[in-house]
């Protein structure tokens, strides 16, 4: 039996609506939104199972979306996607460090004038935020400019963001204040409760985000200057630090030993297939690291209950949506990897999303959702008129009717992408099969697709080295067997009774759209390839009438060069192919998205 001790809370809140005059203290009837956003929380190592208060207060009263994904498995790009509703290839915030990412890049791209809190304020919501916003948001640049759109805020700032016992917070327009010696999540909880009270007293519907940095690794301190290469050499991440009251918990718990835990044979592509098997010493350290993450989440669990009980005491719980999610997933020992994220494997991209609120049914949902869908969801709840232009997602179905319709109508794909290098966390570096030890991985840039249909469950990726991966997660949930053919002599594998050789052109063509999609085409990519509208899924595209069309497709996703950021000139072909009805199955036309 698993131990269920501890409390982890991550509030993820967003709301929007029409412009309005000041209203009475009881609000205008629109729902409040609370978002609890953790940092680096896994789904596939069962961290949620060790959060009994989250279960009691949110899971047991709402829907757990089991196929929820981040599109970029690293914090700053994922968070910018969450708060702008745009994929990283449309924000061009692709790293945690400048020049390719971080808060300065967010500002330089113009998003401080065009993002969710401003849209919600225009809709008549009061907006509040506490905790981690973006990387490279620091004690030096906190007011140059100050993040726009928040009625009241209390931000956790670099270089102390990831120091559990040395947090610096910055409230509204006041200078940063150090909380050395105090436990970061506990400090955050006090600030969250204060902002929640402000929201209750505002006389408006409110949107509140609570963003603890748990269970992220401890970093003393996080580098904020210099080149990305210099930062990668400087940064050292160690196991997270729990509150003193939780350090005794889970003494015998270990990383789940599933099929891809430190496998006998290397898998994957590029540098991952060169990793050496983890030693017993490393595995023991990784188990300790895993327990520290679970212990760290207990203060979050307590925070979750604290938020819910205060909503209940205020008499507004029944009219408040609570979203619990994280920015990206995490791996420890899977695929021979030391602690970290940034890969395209399920451990890194499939993340928790749990929603409680008005009309939300109790149970689990298998519909496909992504971080790009959250901003549209908040805007829809708020009835907002502004902010919809250019969004790359669609609202998450929140009631029984919407969930039932989604089974037949909702998109089945997620765009996945990454640029730059991978950073090993903990005291051990990457050990390669030739005996070489490296501080950080080679270039980790890739474009990928997750496609989840009624009878198929696929991951397809193209690396910047132009290596390919294809996994059938129905038969290979650990993603150990790359079935992408490397030679014509290999025996043909079939999926849905279709040879992989016929499946791949469909996936290539779909990936060509999603890698550069904008707005509606990100939600309906098949409409670009089949503008007549009669193909909406991979299953539909597998119809035999399209065989000659897809067989004639020559352009596919490839890279000219491995870069550390999104450099369009190195991204390879950008045009999708289009099937035109009535002109023959083998007639192609190139068209810009």
Automatic annotation (TrEMBL):
It is an enzyme of class 3 (hydrolase). GO terms for biological process: phenol-containing compound metabolic process. Keywords: Glycoprotein, Hydrolase, Signal. The modification 3-oxoalanine (Cys) is found at residue 75. Residues 1-17 form the signal peptide. Its EC number is 3.1.6.1. It catalyses: an aryl sulfate + H2O = a phenol + sulfate + H(+). GO terms for molecular function: arylsulfatase activity; glycosaminoglycan binding; N-acetylglucosamine-6-sulfatase activity. Gene3D superfamilies: Alkaline Phosphatase, subunit A (3.40.720.10). The conversion to 3-oxoalanine (also known as C-formylglycine, FGly), of a serine or cysteine residue in prokaryotes and of a cysteine residue in eukaryotes, is critical for catalytic activity. Residues 32-384 form the Sulfatase N-terminal domain. InterPro entries: Alkaline_phosphatase_core_sf (IPR017850), Arylsulfatase (IPR012083), Sulfatase_CS (IPR024607), Sulfatase_N (IPR000917). It holds the Pfam family Sulfatase. Belongs to the sulfatase family. This is Arylsulfatase.
